[in-house]
Write a structure and sequence with these properties.
The complex is a heterodimer of chains A (244) and B (376). Chain A is of the alpha/beta class and 244 residues long. Chain A is 37% helix and 26% strand. Chain A has a 6-stranded mixed β-sheet with strand order 6-7-8-3-9-10, with helices on both faces. Chain A has a 4-stranded antiparallel β-sheet with strand order 2-1-4-5, with helices on one face. Chain B is elongated. Classes of the chains: A alpha/beta (244), B alpha/beta (376). Chains A and B meet through helix 2 and helix 3 of A and helix 2 and helix 9 of B.
């Protein structure tokens, strides 16, 4: 396997007349925290959905963890974790039941599975809430649970689609500490976000607009390239350009 | 590896476990699923019972004798007819039944007493508005029986040869008659169709609507795992529903169970599977729970009308019969009535059983094929 966790060539996806992702070339190193940044409709979610096998690319190729996503989507699924934009877990199951369900789908069963679930609950600070129904959790706790379910099987890659939308600042900080810890262990992280302080925590950023990659590089290098003072200024300018 | 171990190692097992947990917590759905059989049986069952009794009946007594009055009294004593006045000619009978304020008429001709005295067959007539076959069938058999009983009594008293009275029944408007016992076993099939198709379709679509499907399909769960995991709990519910109706039908309406329950449940399992397959097909064709509900009800209509549940298929035009032959319910109704009422087994019902096996295989295969692990 190469050093790249994700590699795409001319990846493209159309919905009818709309080109959502247009010729995307992406290379993500193993253990990297990559931030996908861009206004709404720039193709961030569509990109993540193609890489996780939720959408078929219209053209182009992509490998995730060394596996071609169109040839062996199941192979990809076994190696990745995913947190979708909306809370995707079961409101009418408890914290523990949700975690157990997802862990078992990845084959984490028996005594080893139980031990791993316990570890994930502890690390996520969820142990005290284990018997609470997921639907009654607040935003921050739901997000912790979703992350726990996405990483229980120790995936090589984790995709996070706007993971901190609607989450309070303290929970966001705790969440990014967990992300940092995962990356330190060698997990590749791809995350979309609207928060500039979060974008600045990524090792590398990819800016998308109208389905195209318009800039990439470490967060501190990007503003200068657009002649802007801060990352936020770049983002606001992009959004204004979209509106015209 | 045994079947159970293979099942436990597959992704079907956690899916089934999850579905059971959710079903157990969803008290409303569970209540509806288990309550519907009882409510439907009461509705159908008691509606039938009250309809067959107390038909408003007019009397045309042209004989005006003690004998004719005795016969009329015997007919009223069956409890199926209520005296709704006397009339003086046949035209008035037609008017009153046509208007609907009488549902039956008893006619005793002028020669009734004379014929009876001379030992000739004495004829009386009962006219029944058979537009509603459920209401009329019991009334007709009651009238015939009352006439025969009265005749036997006269035979015993006088020692006359042969039955001296013949009550002839004229079912108007609908010559093909069906008894109420025929309807109740059918409720099992109709109810299973309704709950299995609509509830499964909604259970799958609900995951799509709530966004939980998106999270689920990025896992290595197999398509079969998702589908089977959804089905198995409902298979159990279906068997419970059959049992509830059988039990209540037996206790409340004395529905006979003449054949083998093993055959009934065995074939029933395939019928449930076929209905679940249809429900899954519906779920792959719609996007919202509302659409699933609508399509489900759309599917119900031909099932109620064309399967032979309410109207005999033999009396239908050929295209309606062909359509009916495409519905699993048509075959299951024949099995239900065959086992419960006629007491026959697989030696007679194997074509229907085979048809249901084929239906379940086809609908399940097609729906699993149509289900994709993408969110398009």
């Amino acid at each position: 396997m190469s050093d790249l966790a994700i590699e795409t060539h001319a990846l493209r996806r159309v919905f009818g007349a709309l080109v959502a992702v247009d010729g995307l070339d992406l290379a993500v190193r193993r253990g990297e925290v990559l931030g996908l940044l861009g206004p709404n409709g720039s193709g961030k979610t569509t990109t993540i959905r193609m890489l996780t096998g939720l959408l078929q690319p219209s053209a182009g190729t992509a490998t995730v963890a060394g596996i071609d996503i169109t040839r062996d989507p199941e192979g990809v699924r076994r190696r990745i974790g995913y947190m979708c934009q909306r809370f995707g877990l079961y409101d009418d199951l408890t914290v523990e039941e949700n975690l157990r369900f997802y862990a078992e789908l990845y084959g984490l069963r028996g005594a080893a599975g139980a031990a791993r679930r316990e570890q994930v609950l502890e690390e996520g600070g969820l142990a005290s809430r284990r018997r609470q129904l997921a639907g009654t959790l607040s935003g921050g706790w739901k997000q912790r649970l979703a992350l726990a379910c996405a990483i229980a099987h120790e995936p090589a890659l984790v995709f996070l689609d706007e993971p901190t939308a609607g989450v309070d600042p303290a929970s966001r900080r705790a969440f990014w500490q967990r992300i940092g810890a995962l990356a330190a262990l060698g997990t590749t992280i791809v995350v979309t976000t609207h928060y500039m302080d979060e974008a600045e925590r990524c090792a590398r950023l990819v800016l998308l607009a109208r389905g195209r990659l318009i800039a990439e590089g470490p967060p501190d290098g990007i503003p200068a390239r657009f002649g802007a003072a801060t990352l936020e200024d770049v983002f606001v300018d992009l959004q204004a350009a979209e509106a015209t | 590896m045994g079947l159970l171990e293979r099942l436990r190692a597959s992704t079907v097992w956690p899916m089934m476990w999850k579905e059971f947990l959710q079903l157990r917590r969803d008290r409303l759905t569970l209540g509806i699923l288990l309550g519907i059989p009882a409510v439907q049986l009461m509705l159908f069952g008691y509606a039938i019972q009250t309809e067959v009794r107390h038909l408003p009946t007019v009397v045309l007594d042209e004989a005006r004798s003690g004998e004719s009055r005795a016969l009329i009294a015997a007919l009223f004593n069956t409890g199926n007819f209520d005296h709704a006045g006397d009339v003086t000619d046949r035209a008035e009978i037609a008017r009153r039944i046509g208007r609907g304020d009488a549902r039956a008429a008893i006619v005793v001709p002028a020669d009734y007493t004379r014929n009876l005295k001379r030992g000739r067959p004495a004829l009386a007539q009962v006219i029944v508005d058979a537009a509603d076959p459920l209401a009329s069938s019991a009334a007709i058999s009651a009238a015939t029986m009352a006439g025969n009983a009265r005749a036997m009594e006269l035979v015993r008293r006088r020692g006359a040869p042969g039955l001296p009275i013949e009550v002839r029944v004229r079912p108007w408007y609908n010559p093909t008659l069906r008894s109420s016992v025929y309807i109740v076993p059918g409720i099992i099939g109709v109810l299973l169709t309704m709950t299995m198709v609509i509830i499964t379709a909604m259970a799958v679509v609900r995951e799509r609507e709530r966004g939980t499907l998106e999270q689920l399909v990025v896992t290595p769960i197999s398509r079969l795992g998702i589908m089977l995991g959804k089905l198995v709990p409902f298979l159990g519910i279906g068997l419970v529903q059959i049992s509830v109706i059988l039990l209540l039908g037996r206790v409340l309406f004395a529905i006979p169970i003449r054949g083998s329950l093993v055959v009934l449940y065995g074939v029933g399992l395939f019928f449930i599977a076929a209905s679940l397959g249809v429900g899954l097909l519906v779920s792959t064709a719609v996007r919202t729970q509302g659409q699933a509900m609508q399509l489900g009800f759309f599917y119900m209509l031909p099932n109620i009308l064309l399967s032979g549940f309410m109207f005999p298929r033999e009396a239908m035009p050929a295209p309606a019969q062909w359509l009916g032959a495409l519905l699993p319910l048509t075959y299951f109704l024949e099995v239900l009535r065959g086992v419960l009422l006629k007491g026959v087994g697989l030696e007679a019902l194997w074509p229907q059983a085979l048809a249901l096996v084929a239906f379940s295989a086809v609908t399940l295969t097609v729906s699993v094929r149509r289900f994709h692990k993408t969110i398009e």
